[in-house]
Specification:
two-stranded antiparallel ribbon; single chain; 9-stranded mixed beta sheet
Amino acid sequence: MINIRKLEVNLWESADLLRAGSKLTSNQYCMPVLGLIFLRYAYSRYKLVEQEILKNRPSRNGRVMPVEASDFNEKSALYLPEQAQYTWLVNLPTDIVSQKLSDTQGHTMTSLGEVVNNAMELIEAQSEQLVGVLPKEYTMFSNELLSELIRIFNNDALDDVGGDVIGRIYEYFLNKFAKNIASDDGVFFTPKSLVKMIVNILEPKQGILLDPACGSGGMFVQTGDFVNAAGMVANNTMTFYGQEKVEYNAKLCLMNMAVHGLTGVIKSGDEANTFYHDAHNLEGCCDYIMANPPFNVDKVKSESTQSAGRLPFGLPSVNKSKEVGNANYLWISYFYSYLNETGRAGFVMASSATDSQGKDKDIRESLIKTGHVDCMISVANNFFYTKSLPCSLWFFDKGKTDELRDKVLFIDSRNYYTVVDRTLNEWSEWQLKNMNAIVWLYRGEKDKYEALLNEYCQTLHQYANEAQDDEVRMVMQDGYDFAKTVSDLKSFLKQQRTIAKQEVERAERKEKKKIQSAWDEEVARLEEIITVAKEAEWLYEKFGDGEYQDVPGLCKVASISEIEEKGWSLTPGAYVGVALAENDGVDFEERMKEIHKELVELQAESNDLMNTISKNLKEMGL
């Protein structure tokens, strides 16, 4: 089994080490490296499809008929001429001139950079969607640097196309470049946690999906994963449309989609400026809208915006220069207007938009009165790679049931996340599922909640079956008593750490490192399963066997009349309140006496030390 995380890290470290040794910036390096990953992906798929074609290939005079471009077209796959095949590039001699190679224009190629540029040209000739998209700046690399990069991605593990390993690697690199480049405030990359949450709650199955601020295409990729995981084929059931003003980002999007085997129509440049153009003429036509638009954009020309339409609730505030000073509610209006009569929308928005005043408030009131606002989620700081600001996730559903028509689900998740490092937070896979479960119960989909509880039990039992210790197996036999499971596992972990310390201390010097490493793995595995059990406990203690209830500090279902009483605010914190303080069994008055006593003793010690220091200084004549 491939350790994808380790592979991601190793490939990135190798590639970034080469960048550090060159004079290239991350911005210069990003697109060419992603292009090589794409090239490697295209070759993996080519070999896979070629095997399928050759299975039933007719033969003539004892020789199997050679594969042709038309054979690949029939299977919706890219045909790769020999000079665009990755192994051909890998096996090229270092002396390019001696090979007397010609490019698509008939010119003799003298460097490896020219050869790779030519490979990109050859691939673009096979795909209308990729024309003008693939990078062709490889001549800025030295032959040695480019050859080493090509070698790095010549890894057999990347041939596991079925497991979408290369898709994962591409996303990992895109993430790392977004963090390193921080260009345009990282607008071309939406953190995977937020994308997954949006897709999970919208549950796309079939129809038209538009992202009018599509960046690098994360919404499309995650939707493809979601649809494929449900047993369907995304390219057959979904139609993807995107708009992206920055052409560089649109190219990243098309490459990202191609790496994940997706096709779509992406428009870029001035015609794709969503403030002034409905580039695909999709107003009122979309089954799904997903987006992470740029926040708080100013100086948007109001007259051009108004003539472009898609403003069912009117324009936001306009200044003396006839400009919209904050475009958040332009985006919100567009997302709503694109939906068809049963469409769903999910998007990221600045937290300030949930209770902004003036014309924004008027638009928000009209929007809420439609009954189509479905769910609002507050997100903590540090979910973005290049910004620390908090945000909110908004969800519309024009197909809400009558029972939910005058209700909105508010979730405040600002205290629920996993810390990745000092500047970055995310939702783990189990946290994403738990948040999704709240929405299921709100919608009355108890069966999905029960399936999640069963998934928790199966995961815990699977771990128990794999464990070598009878005590662990016994702990895992408690059904839905997740609290007991967590408590027992913590106790067991404490024991294991004690045993580990003793064994390492007793071991001979040459064996210490090996024994420590083995115990580190065991402890990490126990910590991982405790994390799963704790998430199960978090969910079950709140919703038991599957009845939605408001949880102070976390979630609340509010009626439109309640929202009106709050001044048409859509800020979750205004509704969910504060979590009830847990009784830790400590007598507050008694504890304060103990703290005061400790403080007095510390002050006395401090005074004694100061006196001693002063005395010593005097004796030294200072």
